[in-house]
Amino acid sequence: MNSLVVANLLHRPLRTLITVVAVGIEVCLVVIIVGLTTGLMHETAKRIEGVGADLMLQPPAASFLIAFSGAPMPVKIKDKLEEIDHVAAVAPVLLQFNTWGGLDIVYGIDLESFRAVSGGFVYHAGGPFREPNDILLDDWYAKAVNLKVGSTLRLFEHDFYVRGIVEHGKGARLFVPIETLQELSAARDKASIFYIRCDDPAHTEQVAGSIRQVFPRHQLRPIKEYLSLMSSTRIPGLNGFVRAMIVLAVAVGFLVIFLSMYTAILERTREIGILKSMGASKKDIMGWVLQESLLLCAFGVAAGVAFSYGGRALLKEAFPTITILIGFGWLLRAGLLAVLGGVLGALYPAYLAARQEPIVALAYE
Fold it and tell me: How many domains does the chain have?
């Protein structure tokens, strides 16, 4: 029976290839979509941690998604924070979306205070701000948009001079002087967030308690806990979108296997009649169809794994700033979903084959 299953698959190589590729695309779709969402969340959290702060202060009722914090806080809050015991440095940051070529966040920073909190930038080329219209890009963004030191980048209807290319991983991908961004965004003397570094990480809880007494309504978040907040379940609508894409992918696999096995059964009516006349039971016939479906799914899952890694490499080459995490757990889940869809898709064709009468099948033309 095993040799018959293999022979049946090889009898129609093009149909077999199309089915395997379709199942592979199903697996790839699930893995890439989940990898994109988890990669975005993880990479954003790691960049926030890369700032080097121990705490971050946001406006009252601010979202943990710092891009939606707005800029309602006066910069002079920095002075009050620096008066608190065991606070070593405070860096006010103004945030703005860059919608040109993506959804990157632009940090408006005071270079000295940001250096005091983060330890400073590692420059791949160029150097720090010299003029109000200077901008620093991280190396990933510079590669993505093909810019170098001396280039001009237009943001917010304003031309910026690329003064330096810095190592990625310190909060944002684009940095401009905070005063310039305040003027461009009509948020003079305002900041979206304050990064706070303690003189000793052991004093973080003590500092947090003191800050909450001074600013009881503001959102204060320890940086070490921020990574746990960045998941698709915490973002409204995103988890539902991921589930919808998974259901769509499983439906595609189900339909492909169903059509493949259904047409195969119609083509092999006489072969089924011969098998039944030789003593094959309904269980044997159903087992043959399901084995063929499982073999198609197995090859499809293997192709899907290859497609996932290949797709990640192509997307990374086209969009250097994105992060796609491919974990074994989701590879396994995607494979199991593909097999489940394949088995469900093969059940009716298997039942159809098993219920055929030998005499009718042998007489079929």
Answer: 2
Kindly report, residue by residue over 117-134, the tens digit of the pLDDT. 999 899 999 999 999 999
175 DSSP β-pair partners: 107, 136
Statement to judge: residues 182 and 277 lie in one domain: no
Backbone φ and ψ of 338, nearest 5°: -65, -45
Q: Which of 170, 166, 96 is CA-nearest to residue 136?
A: 166
Residues 182 and 67 reside in one and the same domain:
yes
Quick one: tokens of 74? Answer: 């006066």
Q: 93 pairs with which residues across the strands?
A: 109, 193
What is residue 168's DSSP assignment? S
Kindly state the tokens that stand for 42.
């993880």
Cβ neighbourhood burial of 188 (10 Å; 0-12, 13-18, 19+) = exposed
Helix spans in the chain (H): 2-11, 13-49, 77-82, 111-118, 139-145, 178-184, 204-214, 226-229, 238-267, 269-277, 282-318, 328-354, 358-362
Is the pLDDT score of 12 beyond 60? Answer: yes
> Contact at 8 Å (CB) between 71 and 190?
yes
In a domain, 230, yes or no: no
Instruction: Residue 115: give the domain boundaries.
Output: 60-217
**Domain C-terminal end among 190, 217, 244:** 217
Give the whole-number percent of the chain exceeding pLDDT 70. Answer: 81
pLDDT digits (tens, 9 = 90+) for 169-204: 898 899 999 999 999 888 888 999 999 999 998 999
Using the Cα atoms of residue 287, residue 290, residue 294 and residue 295 in order, give the sign of their dihedral.
positive
- At residue 256, the 3 state secondary structure works out as helix
